[in-house]
Amino acid sequence: MLYTCSKCKINSGVFKRSYSGETLCKSCFLLSIENKTLHTISKYSMIGYGERIAVGVSGGKDSLTLLSILKKILKKNNSNDIIAITVDEGIENYRDESILIVKNHCDAINIPLKIFSYHDLFGTSMDEAMFQRPSKKLSSCSICGTFRRRALDIAAKSVSADVVATAHNLDDHIQTFMINLFSGDVDRIGWMYPTPIEYDTGLKKIKPFLELYENEIVFYAFHSGIEFQAEQCPYMNESIRSDFRKFFNELEKAHPGIKYNCYNAVNKLSKMIQNSRPTSPLYLKKVCSKCGNMCNNEVCSVCKTIFLLETK
Ligand SMILES: [Zn+2]
Ligand SMILES: [Zn+2]
Fold it and tell me: What was the pLDDT predicted at 280?
Protein backbone atom coordinates (compact mmCIF):
# COMPACT_ATOMS: atom_id res chain seq x y z
CA MET A 1 0.00 0.00 0.00
CA LEU A 2 1.44 3.34 -1.05
CA TYR A 3 0.90 6.66 0.66
CA THR A 4 0.22 10.22 -0.45
CA CYS A 5 2.65 11.72 -2.99
CA SER A 6 5.69 13.23 -1.23
CA LYS A 7 5.80 16.11 -3.77
CA CYS A 8 2.28 17.42 -4.28
CA LYS A 9 0.88 15.97 -1.03
CA ILE A 10 -2.49 15.57 -2.79
CA ASN A 11 -2.60 12.51 -5.05
CA SER A 12 -1.95 8.97 -4.00
CA GLY A 13 1.47 7.61 -4.80
CA VAL A 14 2.04 5.07 -7.57
CA PHE A 15 5.83 4.83 -7.46
CA LYS A 16 8.15 4.33 -4.51
CA ARG A 17 11.66 5.57 -5.16
CA SER A 18 13.47 3.26 -2.76
CA TYR A 19 16.83 5.01 -2.88
CA SER A 20 15.41 8.41 -1.90
CA GLY A 21 12.48 7.23 0.18
CA GLU A 22 10.02 9.35 -1.89
CA THR A 23 6.59 8.18 -2.96
CA LEU A 24 5.30 9.87 -6.11
CA CYS A 25 1.96 10.15 -7.86
CA LYS A 26 1.79 9.56 -11.59
CA SER A 27 2.09 13.18 -12.68
CA CYS A 28 4.85 14.06 -10.19
CA PHE A 29 6.72 10.93 -11.23
CA LEU A 30 6.54 11.73 -14.96
CA LEU A 31 7.60 15.31 -14.32
CA SER A 32 10.50 14.16 -12.12
CA ILE A 33 11.87 12.00 -14.94
CA GLU A 34 11.62 14.87 -17.44
CA ASN A 35 13.33 17.22 -14.97
CA LYS A 36 16.08 14.71 -14.21
CA THR A 37 16.75 14.35 -17.95
CA LEU A 38 16.89 18.11 -18.40
CA HIS A 39 19.18 18.37 -15.38
CA THR A 40 21.62 15.78 -16.82
CA ILE A 41 21.61 17.61 -20.18
CA SER A 42 22.51 20.94 -18.63
CA LYS A 43 24.90 19.52 -16.01
CA TYR A 44 27.12 18.08 -18.74
CA SER A 45 26.38 20.72 -21.45
CA MET A 46 25.02 18.05 -23.76
CA ILE A 47 22.90 20.18 -26.10
CA GLY A 48 23.62 23.69 -27.37
CA TYR A 49 21.35 26.34 -28.85
CA GLY A 50 20.23 25.48 -32.39
CA GLU A 51 21.98 22.12 -32.52
CA ARG A 52 20.39 19.44 -34.67
CA ILE A 53 19.84 16.24 -32.71
CA ALA A 54 19.73 12.72 -34.10
CA VAL A 55 18.26 10.24 -31.63
CA GLY A 56 19.19 6.58 -31.99
CA VAL A 57 15.91 4.70 -31.67
CA SER A 58 15.74 0.92 -31.48
CA GLY A 59 12.10 0.33 -30.64
CA GLY A 60 12.85 -0.60 -27.02
CA LYS A 61 11.43 1.31 -24.06
CA ASP A 62 14.52 3.43 -23.39
CA SER A 63 15.03 4.93 -26.82
CA LEU A 64 11.33 5.58 -27.54
CA THR A 65 11.02 7.26 -24.15
CA LEU A 66 14.13 9.35 -24.84
CA LEU A 67 12.67 10.52 -28.13
CA SER A 68 9.39 11.51 -26.47
CA ILE A 69 11.04 13.28 -23.55
CA LEU A 70 13.50 15.20 -25.74
CA LYS A 71 10.67 16.31 -27.98
CA LYS A 72 8.72 17.47 -24.93
CA ILE A 73 11.47 19.27 -23.01
CA LEU A 74 13.17 20.86 -26.01
CA LYS A 75 9.91 22.10 -27.49
CA LYS A 76 9.92 24.87 -24.90
CA ASN A 77 12.82 26.80 -26.45
CA ASN A 78 12.07 25.48 -29.94
CA SER A 79 15.64 25.84 -31.22
CA ASN A 80 16.58 22.20 -31.75
CA ASP A 81 15.50 19.99 -34.67
CA ILE A 82 15.09 16.34 -33.76
CA ILE A 83 15.34 13.41 -36.15
CA ALA A 84 15.10 9.71 -35.28
CA ILE A 85 17.65 7.29 -36.71
CA THR A 86 17.15 3.54 -36.56
CA VAL A 87 19.72 0.88 -37.26
CA ASP A 88 18.42 -2.32 -38.84
CA GLU A 89 20.89 -5.03 -37.81
CA GLY A 90 19.14 -7.66 -39.92
CA ILE A 91 17.74 -9.90 -37.18
CA GLU A 92 14.73 -11.64 -38.65
CA ASN A 93 11.37 -11.26 -36.86
CA TYR A 94 12.89 -9.31 -33.97
CA ARG A 95 13.98 -6.19 -35.85
CA ASP A 96 11.06 -6.18 -38.32
CA GLU A 97 8.61 -5.82 -35.44
CA SER A 98 10.56 -3.04 -33.75
CA ILE A 99 10.92 -0.99 -36.94
CA LEU A 100 7.15 -0.94 -37.25
CA ILE A 101 6.86 0.22 -33.62
CA VAL A 102 9.41 3.00 -34.24
CA LYS A 103 7.60 4.15 -37.40
CA ASN A 104 4.28 4.37 -35.57
CA HIS A 105 5.80 6.21 -32.62
CA CYS A 106 7.58 8.75 -34.84
CA ASP A 107 4.40 9.35 -36.84
CA ALA A 108 2.44 9.85 -33.63
CA ILE A 109 4.78 12.51 -32.24
CA ASN A 110 5.62 13.96 -35.64
CA ILE A 111 9.36 13.30 -35.83
CA PRO A 112 11.08 12.31 -39.09
CA LEU A 113 12.75 8.88 -39.18
CA LYS A 114 15.63 7.47 -41.24
CA ILE A 115 16.60 3.79 -41.27
CA PHE A 116 20.11 2.47 -41.96
CA SER A 117 20.90 -1.24 -42.35
CA TYR A 118 24.04 -3.20 -41.55
CA HIS A 119 23.57 -4.94 -44.86
CA ASP A 120 23.77 -1.70 -46.85
CA LEU A 121 26.59 -0.26 -44.73
CA PHE A 122 28.78 -3.32 -44.10
CA GLY A 123 27.61 -5.95 -46.59
CA THR A 124 26.37 -8.31 -43.89
CA SER A 125 23.48 -8.65 -41.44
CA MET A 126 23.63 -9.90 -37.85
CA ASP A 127 21.91 -13.15 -38.83
CA GLU A 128 24.55 -13.71 -41.53
CA ALA A 129 27.40 -12.66 -39.24
CA MET A 130 26.38 -15.32 -36.71
CA PHE A 131 27.09 -17.96 -39.37
CA GLN A 132 30.17 -16.24 -40.73
CA ARG A 133 31.98 -15.63 -37.44
CA PRO A 134 35.11 -17.74 -36.92
CA SER A 135 34.13 -18.86 -33.40
CA LYS A 136 31.79 -18.07 -30.55
CA LYS A 137 34.60 -16.10 -28.94
CA LEU A 138 33.62 -13.29 -31.26
CA SER A 139 30.36 -12.60 -29.42
CA SER A 140 27.19 -11.37 -31.09
CA CYS A 141 27.16 -8.26 -28.90
CA SER A 142 30.73 -7.34 -29.74
CA ILE A 143 30.08 -7.64 -33.50
CA CYS A 144 26.82 -5.74 -33.15
CA GLY A 145 28.26 -3.04 -30.88
CA THR A 146 31.15 -2.38 -33.25
CA PHE A 147 28.82 -2.06 -36.25
CA ARG A 148 26.25 -0.04 -34.33
CA ARG A 149 28.68 2.68 -33.25
CA ARG A 150 29.87 3.15 -36.84
CA ALA A 151 26.31 2.97 -38.21
CA LEU A 152 25.22 5.74 -35.85
CA ASP A 153 28.19 7.88 -36.91
CA ILE A 154 27.34 7.42 -40.59
CA ALA A 155 23.65 8.01 -39.91
CA ALA A 156 24.32 11.19 -37.94
CA LYS A 157 26.52 12.54 -40.71
CA SER A 158 23.98 11.75 -43.38
CA VAL A 159 21.23 13.68 -41.58
CA SER A 160 23.63 16.59 -40.83
CA ALA A 161 23.26 16.18 -37.06
CA ASP A 162 25.41 18.08 -34.56
CA VAL A 163 24.52 15.73 -31.73
CA VAL A 164 23.75 12.01 -31.51
CA ALA A 165 21.69 11.06 -28.47
CA THR A 166 21.44 7.48 -27.28
CA ALA A 167 19.32 6.14 -24.44
CA HIS A 168 22.01 4.54 -22.27
CA ASN A 169 20.84 4.62 -18.66
CA LEU A 170 22.53 4.36 -15.26
CA ASP A 171 22.23 0.57 -15.26
CA ASP A 172 23.93 0.33 -18.69
CA HIS A 173 26.69 2.63 -17.46
CA ILE A 174 27.63 0.58 -14.40
CA GLN A 175 27.36 -2.68 -16.37
CA THR A 176 29.75 -1.25 -18.96
CA PHE A 177 32.11 -0.31 -16.15
CA MET A 178 32.11 -3.91 -14.87
CA ILE A 179 32.67 -5.26 -18.40
CA ASN A 180 35.64 -2.90 -18.86
CA LEU A 181 36.97 -3.71 -15.41
CA PHE A 182 36.73 -7.48 -15.83
CA SER A 183 38.25 -7.40 -19.28
CA GLY A 184 41.16 -5.34 -17.89
CA ASP A 185 40.40 -2.39 -20.14
CA VAL A 186 41.26 0.51 -17.82
CA ASP A 187 41.64 2.95 -20.74
CA ARG A 188 38.00 2.52 -21.60
CA ILE A 189 36.99 3.39 -18.03
CA GLY A 190 38.73 6.70 -18.69
CA TRP A 191 36.30 7.30 -21.57
CA MET A 192 33.21 6.76 -19.44
CA TYR A 193 32.82 10.21 -17.86
CA PRO A 194 29.39 11.63 -18.83
CA THR A 195 30.57 14.76 -20.68
CA PRO A 196 29.84 14.45 -24.41
CA ILE A 197 32.41 12.68 -26.55
CA GLU A 198 33.31 15.05 -29.37
CA TYR A 199 34.71 14.02 -32.72
CA ASP A 200 37.07 16.01 -34.92
CA THR A 201 34.12 16.61 -37.18
CA GLY A 202 32.38 18.42 -34.33
CA LEU A 203 29.80 15.66 -33.83
CA LYS A 204 28.89 15.17 -30.17
CA LYS A 205 27.69 11.93 -28.59
CA ILE A 206 25.42 12.32 -25.60
CA LYS A 207 23.50 10.12 -23.13
CA PRO A 208 20.73 12.19 -21.51
CA PHE A 209 19.35 9.19 -19.52
CA LEU A 210 22.64 8.43 -17.85
CA GLU A 211 21.38 9.34 -14.38
CA LEU A 212 18.11 7.39 -14.58
CA TYR A 213 17.52 3.86 -13.35
CA GLU A 214 16.24 1.46 -15.97
CA ASN A 215 13.15 0.55 -13.92
CA GLU A 216 12.15 4.24 -13.78
CA ILE A 217 12.29 4.47 -17.57
CA VAL A 218 10.08 1.37 -17.87
CA PHE A 219 7.64 2.94 -15.44
CA TYR A 220 7.65 6.21 -17.40
CA ALA A 221 7.06 4.41 -20.71
CA PHE A 222 4.22 2.40 -19.22
CA HIS A 223 2.48 5.38 -17.61
CA SER A 224 2.80 7.68 -20.58
CA GLY A 225 1.36 5.09 -22.93
CA ILE A 226 4.50 4.50 -25.00
CA GLU A 227 4.25 1.21 -26.84
CA PHE A 228 7.57 -0.54 -27.09
CA GLN A 229 9.02 -3.85 -28.12
CA ALA A 230 9.03 -6.11 -25.08
CA GLU A 231 10.78 -8.99 -26.79
CA GLN A 232 14.51 -8.98 -26.16
CA CYS A 233 17.18 -9.42 -28.77
CA PRO A 234 17.54 -13.17 -29.49
CA TYR A 235 21.33 -12.87 -29.25
CA MET A 236 21.28 -11.05 -25.92
CA ASN A 237 22.09 -14.00 -23.67
CA GLU A 238 25.53 -14.36 -25.14
CA SER A 239 26.44 -11.19 -23.34
CA ILE A 240 28.18 -11.00 -19.99
CA ARG A 241 26.15 -7.81 -19.60
CA SER A 242 23.07 -9.88 -18.68
CA ASP A 243 25.00 -11.44 -15.79
CA PHE A 244 26.02 -8.02 -14.43
CA ARG A 245 22.46 -6.80 -14.89
CA LYS A 246 21.12 -9.58 -12.65
CA PHE A 247 23.93 -9.02 -10.16
CA PHE A 248 23.22 -5.29 -9.77
CA ASN A 249 19.46 -5.78 -9.59
CA GLU A 250 19.81 -8.22 -6.73
CA LEU A 251 22.21 -5.90 -4.90
CA GLU A 252 19.86 -2.94 -5.37
CA LYS A 253 16.96 -4.91 -3.93
CA ALA A 254 18.91 -5.58 -0.75
CA HIS A 255 20.61 -2.17 -0.61
CA PRO A 256 18.53 0.59 -2.27
CA GLY A 257 20.75 3.28 -3.78
CA ILE A 258 23.77 1.07 -4.28
CA LYS A 259 23.61 1.44 -8.07
CA TYR A 260 23.66 5.20 -7.70
CA ASN A 261 26.69 5.03 -5.39
CA CYS A 262 28.43 2.84 -7.92
CA TYR A 263 27.53 5.30 -10.72
CA ASN A 264 29.16 8.17 -8.81
CA ALA A 265 32.25 6.11 -8.07
CA VAL A 266 32.59 5.11 -11.75
CA ASN A 267 32.55 8.75 -12.82
CA LYS A 268 35.13 9.76 -10.22
CA LEU A 269 37.41 6.92 -11.29
CA SER A 270 36.89 7.79 -14.93
CA LYS A 271 37.91 11.38 -14.29
CA MET A 272 41.01 10.26 -12.37
CA ILE A 273 42.07 8.01 -15.24
CA GLN A 274 41.47 10.85 -17.74
CA ASN A 275 43.54 13.24 -15.64
CA SER A 276 46.39 10.76 -15.35
CA ARG A 277 46.86 10.76 -19.14
CA PRO A 278 49.19 13.27 -20.79
CA THR A 279 46.65 13.88 -23.57
CA SER A 280 42.90 13.70 -23.64
CA PRO A 281 41.75 10.08 -23.49
CA LEU A 282 39.21 10.83 -26.16
CA TYR A 283 41.92 10.62 -28.75
CA LEU A 284 41.36 8.88 -32.03
CA LYS A 285 44.57 9.94 -33.66
CA LYS A 286 45.18 7.39 -36.38
CA VAL A 287 43.36 6.79 -39.63
CA CYS A 288 42.22 3.30 -40.62
CA SER A 289 44.28 2.10 -43.59
CA LYS A 290 41.24 0.35 -45.06
CA CYS A 291 38.30 2.71 -44.65
CA GLY A 292 39.89 6.03 -43.63
CA ASN A 293 37.87 6.47 -40.44
CA MET A 294 39.56 7.75 -37.29
CA CYS A 295 40.67 4.95 -34.96
CA ASN A 296 43.24 3.85 -32.38
CA ASN A 297 45.12 1.31 -34.52
CA GLU A 298 46.29 0.71 -38.07
CA VAL A 299 42.95 -0.88 -38.94
CA CYS A 300 39.69 0.10 -37.24
CA SER A 301 37.52 -2.36 -35.31
CA VAL A 302 34.82 -2.33 -38.02
CA CYS A 303 37.27 -3.32 -40.78
CA LYS A 304 38.82 -5.92 -38.46
CA THR A 305 35.40 -7.45 -37.77
CA ILE A 306 34.44 -7.50 -41.46
CA PHE A 307 37.79 -9.19 -42.23
CA LEU A 308 37.17 -11.88 -39.57
CA LEU A 309 33.69 -12.56 -40.94
CA GLU A 310 34.87 -12.80 -44.53
CA THR A 311 37.84 -15.07 -43.95
CA LYS A 312 36.31 -17.83 -41.88
ZN1 LIG B 1 2.21 14.26 -6.77
ZN1 LIG C 1 38.34 0.83 -41.13
Answer: 53
Instruction: Compute the distance from residue 307 Cα to the ligand 2 centre, in Å.
Output: 10
User: What are the φ and ψ backbone dihedral angles of 3, each rounded to 5 degrees?
Assistant: -105, -170
Cα(275) to ligand 1 centroid in Å equals: 42
Evaluate whether 228 touches 64 at the Cβ level (below 8 Å). Answer: yes
Domains of the chain with CATH codes: 43-280 (3.40.50.620)
**What sign has the CA pseudo-torsion 71, 218, 59, 310?**
positive
Strand ranges in 119-168 using DSSP code E only, listed in sequence order:
163-165
| 290 alpha carbon – ligand 2 mean position (Å) | 5
As a whole number of angstroms, the distance between CA 215 and CA 197 comes to 26
pTM of the model: 0.91
pLDDT tens, position by position, 13-37: 999 998 889 999 999 999 999 999 9
Please check whether residue 210 is in contact with residue 194, taking contact to mean a CB–CB distance below 8 angstroms.
yes
**Beta strand pairing status for 197-198 and 204-206?**
antiparallel
- Ligand 2 centre and the CA of 304: distance in Å? 7
Q: Tens of pLDDT along 131-160? A: 888 888 788 888 998 999 999 999 999 999
